[in-house]
Amino acid sequence: MKEINFTSLIITLVVGVVIWFIPVPDGVKPNAWHLLAIFVATIVGIISKAATMGTMAIIGITLCAATQVLAPGDPTKSILNALSGFGNSTIWLIGLAFFIARGFIKTGLGTRIAYSFIKIFGKSPLGLAYGLNTADLILAPAIPSNTARAGGVIFPIMKSIAVNMGSIPEKAETHRKIGAFLTLSSYNANMITSVMFLTATASNPMAQKFAKDLGVTITWGSWAIAALVPGLVCFLLVPIFLYKVFPPELKETKEAPAIAAKQLKEMGPITIKEWLMVATFFILLVLWIFGNLFSIDATTGALIGLCILLLCGVLTWEDVKSEKGAWDTIVWFSSLVMMGSFLNSLGFIGWFGHLVGGQMTHLSWQLAFPVIILVYSYCHYMFASATAQVAAMYSVFLAVGIAVGVPGTMLAIFLGACASLMGSLTHYGHGPAPIFFGSTYVDLKDWWKQGFFMSVLFLLVWFLVGGAWWKIIGLW
């Protein structure tokens, strides 16, 4: 019962019931409206933490089946439709990528990569920041949980280095020495690497799926190409920007490479399993980037990678069974994708998109585009994860943009990126946020202040640099 917040659960129930009994608007099917009530209530429950995401997802699936909103009068088809999300290949791509990510952590390869970059670049605070961030960037394509990437690899190393450089969490007067700078740099870099690859965080494939439902097809390669230039510019600017507006007191960190070298020495030479992990990683990248040439989709590529790791003994079946994050994601992701897909197929998303889009018909798409992005971006203050925002708002905002003529692929990728980039805003805005904020190096006021500055920087880069790049590659 500790997982249940009864006050939030009652509020969630009231929200669902109120929407359910509101008269159905003209042009909307009754079962579409009732599905909306269940969907909104599920999202409210997730945001308000009425219960865990998995619990809310199961409740949502159960209500869809029990009320037969997906197949009125046919209970057998209703339960099959309610469970249809589990047959979605995108969902299994994320689950499989979680399993593969376990190989980086289990073999120690992720930690070795991070310390190697610190050894090379770590003579200054800026060098340390770029070293940690580059390790995150390299791991991002194959570790779909940015929380696991940040919490399992980057954060422990960052904190260890900060402590060794004199930033002690228990001593507030030492936080600005280097700990606060590295905390914000590592966290915001994680937001950037999360949007540069389709498989870098769970919300990206969800956006891809909802975009496909609206007729916009995005592949692993097309996402990476579109995000490459604005992503790299943000990646390069973040440490420099923080160094100017939130500088560390230390200007040299000559001890850091020695600390990293010591840790690498203790780890010993690279093992056979680490080499196998490296080989699998490159095979996966080839399959994800060039899979269309071999008629292999991204999920099949991930299955091939997992089989290689299992057959080589890098992972065991016990590792797969015990990867709770993957199974948890598969359950709640299936629920939200199922409801979002049926809201679209039952006509609600299209109806709402045209309704709102009709209010913007006096605007050209060039003016409507930034309005849609800005409103969507700063709504993130209300959300504790990118996934919740994508589930609640992505399809509607994309439908509105398409209705007023915004180029679909450009808008779909930008909206997908904003859900993660705006994690910079708050100390709860994305999965890794509580981990880094929990270090106590950055107080709440500075976190929100610098987070807002960072959000402005991100949007400026994506609008200006990204806009120019998308023109070159033909997205608009």
Description:
The protein has 476 residues and is mainly α. The chain has two domains: 1-87 and 334-345, no CATH class; 89-324, no CATH class. 72% of the residues lie in helices and 0% in strands. It is built from 22 helices and no strands. The chain has helices spanning 6-21, 30-47, 53-67, 75-82, 89-107, 109-121, 125-139, 146-164, 179-196, 203-213, 220-245, 255-267, 272-290, 298-311, 317-322, 324-345, 348-358, 365-378, 386-403, 408-421, 433-437, 444-472. α5 packs antiparallel against α10 and α7 (125-139) runs parallel beside α9 (179-196). The protein is globular and about 70 Å long. 51% of the residues are buried.
Radius of gyration: 23 Å
* Average pLDDT, all residues: 87
Structural class: mainly alpha
Number of helices: 22
Instruction: Report the span from N to C terminus.
Output: 52 Å
Task: Quickly count the domains.
Answer: 2
Given as residue ranges, the uncertain stretches (5+ residues, pLDDT < 50) are none
* Proportion of strand residues: under 5%
Shape field: globular
What share of residues is helical?
over 70%
Q: What is the β-strand count?
A: 0
Query: What does the main sheet amount to?
Result: none
